[in-house]
Amino acid sequence: MSKTFNFYCDESTHLQNDGMPYMMIAYVSVACNQLKIHKEAIKGIRARHKVRGEIKWSNVSHGAYPFYAELLELNQYDSYQRKESLMRIFKRDVEENSRFTFRKKQIRPTKIEGQTPMQTLYHHLTTRGDKDEKRKAIGTRSFDMDRSVLLHWLKVHIDDNIKDKVIVFSYEDRKNGTNVIRTYIYNKSQKYVIILEPQRSKTDYYLLTAYPLDEKGGKKQIEKKLKKKLNEVH
């Protein structure tokens, strides 16, 4: 017995306008006899979250996160499924991305003795440091949904391909008793930050971390550094 499917396609870019060397086309297929079920389910999710307009990843924000999480059933994934999904995004955008550069400087993971750099970076981008009841760090990290759902934000900010108010600045941090220059990509609109550290060669960056400024004092800390920024971006 034959079965008919509807295919819904979309392209990743427009070659003539975006200056990209290639274009990807992806699709979602739905069995025709299940189409009404899915349409009604999406309408119900939209209504619950009061979401209007086009559904697209570039529209994801802290406020819209519950809607997208329910739409993709992220909260229903088991740990294995979750890691598989996130790792595919990480490999596409970071590990296997030969054009992972910011302002013509190559971005690399930090090196920690005894650890695989890319695995360490992936772990850092999808987890949050654990704290005790007094809010003091205890030296371990656990999976964090808020960071993980924004993993795909990393590339669009690095590519400087986002319409939000993004501020790029450098600041001299204090690390283990030493002054260290770091460069911040700060999305003021969505309260999100990426932290890079210029290498001594001045031709590359280390990617230290990226995270939403959802913890108490997080945004205030970045704003304080912004006021004391260096005169030039390193």
Question: Would you spell out the secondary-structure blueprint of this structure?
Answer:
Elements: E1 5-11, H1 15-18, E2 25-31, H2 35-49, H3 65-72, H4 79-95, E3 101-102, E4 105-109, H5 117-126, E5 127-131, E6 137-143, H6 145-148, H7 153-158, E7 166-175, E8 178-187, E9 192-198, E10 204-212, H8 218-227
Parallel strand pairs: 4-10
Antiparallel strand pairs: 1-2, 3-4, 5-6, 7-8, 8-9, 9-10
Helix pairs in contact: 2-3
Question: How would you characterize the overall build of this protein?
Answer:
With 234 residues, this protein is α+β, with helices and mostly antiparallel strands. The chain has two domains: 49 residues, no CATH class; 177 residues, no CATH class. The chain is 32% helix and 29% strand. The chain contains eight helices and ten strands. The strands form three sheets. Strands 3-4-10-9-8-7 form a six-stranded mixed β-sheet. Strand 5 and strand 6 form a beta hairpin. The chain starts with a strand and ends in a 7-residue tail after the last helix. The model has no long low-confidence stretch (mean pLDDT 84).
